[in-house]
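Run log, item B.
One chain of 320 residues. Sequence copied directly from the ordering sheet:
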Amino acid sequence: MKKIRLIEVKSELGAGTRGASLGVDALRIACLNQKSDYFQRFTTVEVPNLNDVLFEKNLFPKAKYIDSILHTYKRISATVEQTFELGMFPLVLAGDHSNAGGTIAGIKATYPDKTLGVIWVDAHADIHSPYTTPSGNMHGMPLAVSLHEDNLDCKVNDPEPETIFFWEALKRVGTDQPKIKHEHIVYIVTRSYEKPEVYLFDKHNIKNFTYPEVLAKGIEQVAEEALHRLKDCDIIYVSFDVDSLDSKFSKGTGTPVEVGLNVTQAKELCRALVSDPRVVCFEMVEINPTLDAENTMANNAFEILEYTTEGILERLSKEA
C-alpha cells in the first residue's frame, strides 16, 4: 500500500502578514490537544526555509522576496518529486500559499506527460503576476506562475528587470513549459479577487463554485461537478487554504474573508475530492496562530486534515 508522506513547508515569504511559518507547529499542538497520534503515524520531511531574509530589506516591490522564493520553490519541487519516487503520496502542510507553485512544479516534474488539474479551495484567486499585483505579496501569484500567465492585458505595474528575471526563472522550476492550463483550474468558494483576476476568469471561462452555489447544490454535488470539469486531466492536485472557511472559523489566517465554508462542509468537501483516484497530492496552507490566541483555526484545520487523510488512506488501501 502506498504510504502518505507529510511535507512540512514553513516558508512564509509570500505572505503579507507574518506568522504563517508557525502554522505547522500550531497543527501539531492541535493534534496533541485532540489526543491524536496523527504526526506519529506518518513519515515527515521538512523543507528548509529562508524566512530569516524577512529581517532584510525587500528589493522587489512587485514580487516581494522573489529571489528567496525561487530557492524555496526549487526545494519544494525536489522534495515533492522525491516523495513520488519513493512511491509515497505527498501531503503538504505549508505556510503561505505562494509555496503551492513549488508543489505544482514538483508534481509536473514527476509527471511531465500527464495533464494536471488543480482544485483551489480558497477565498482568493491567487492568479496575479508582478504586472498586476496590488500588493506585491507572492501568495497571490502561485497559479499565474504555474500557468506562465503575465496577464499583460491588465498590466498596472512596471516591474524592475531583476524582478522579471526571477519571475521568468520561477516559471521554469520543475519544467520549462506551463504546468497547467487555465481550463484545468476549478475554484471553490473564491470570493475575494481583483479586476485583473476576473478578466482571466472571463477570458478562459474558469469555473468558481461560489458559496451560494455550494449551499444550493450541496457539497457532494459540487465535488462531483468540480472533478467532472477536470475530466480531461490525468492527475489532480487539491490545494486547501484555510481562509476558504468563513471568517468566524478562520481568525487565525492572514486574510480572512466572510461568507465561506463551515468546518463540517470543509471536511466533507476535501474528503469527497481526495476520494478521486486521480488526486496525487493534497495541500493545506495559511494557518497563522499569531492572529489567534485560542488556536481555534489550527484546531479546526486539524480536524479537516485528519478527516481528509482518512479518506486518502481509505482510497490508497483499495488501490493497493
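Observations after the first pass:
- The chain is about 40% helix and 15% strand.
- The CA atoms of residues 239 and 286 lie 11 Å apart.
Flagged for discussion on Thursday.
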